[in-house]
Amino acid sequence: VLPTSMGMRFKRLVEAWAQPRKQQLVGKGAPLPPWERLMGQGFSRLLETVDPAALPRHGGDATTINVVISLEELRKDLGIATLGYDETNGTTISAAEARRMACNATIIPWVLGGDSEVLDAGRGSRFFQPIQRKAMRLQRKCCQAEGCDMPPEWCDAHHLEPWAAGGKTDLKDGALLCPHHHRLAHNPAYGHERLPDGTIRFTRRP
Fold first, then answer.
1. pTM higher than 0.90
2. Are 178 and 143 within 8 A, CB to CB?
3. FRET label pair with 88: which of 13, 101, 133, 154, CA 20 to 30 Å apart?
4. What is the mean pLDDT of each run of 10 residues along the chain (206 residues)?
5. d(CA 98, CA 187)
6. Domains of the chain, CATH where assigned
7. Which residues lie closer than 8 Å to 148 by C-beta, 6 or more apart?
8. Rg of the chain in Å (alpha carbons)
């Protein structure tokens, strides 16, 4: 329960992230999903774009979420990752969702022993740097998915060649995708290819 003034402010923030998706669908004459779903997507997007540097520290880190997954599982379409520190009781997500999160996250490699004993920890590295994202937005103007015109400021930077498979973090291998198409790019039920004009075509696998 929030005070009315704070509740209205929160509602406006979520609506600001939900509106671009709604306007895109309306412009194409597509049926609108329930408003509750649009607001849920807007809330998720709001969380994904909050600047961690502006938040208070929590347990020594600014909103750090640990995703535990082996390299073998990461490369599988149907692999499983664990959120948090407890691999036995933690919440699991698909490898595809872990790969999507990794496109916009700081990755810290951990070497674990057989009983999840930490043997080594590497340095964190951010894959697409802010200057690279700015260059991609300047080049592409909108989401690169075929037929999508979501503005670049609402898009994520995606590796066309997955970094888990050795993809490089450079402009040639990067693509701007809106949250909807970014999830499709990591959905094993869909394939995608870059067309000569730079747009990304998605096709459902048979």
1. no
2. yes
3. 101
4. 86 83 69 84 81 62 66 73 67 79 67 62 60 76 87 81 63 82 87 89 90
5. 11
6. 4-49 (no CATH), 67-125 (no CATH), 128-204 (1.10.30)
7. 24, 142, 178, 180, 181
8. 18
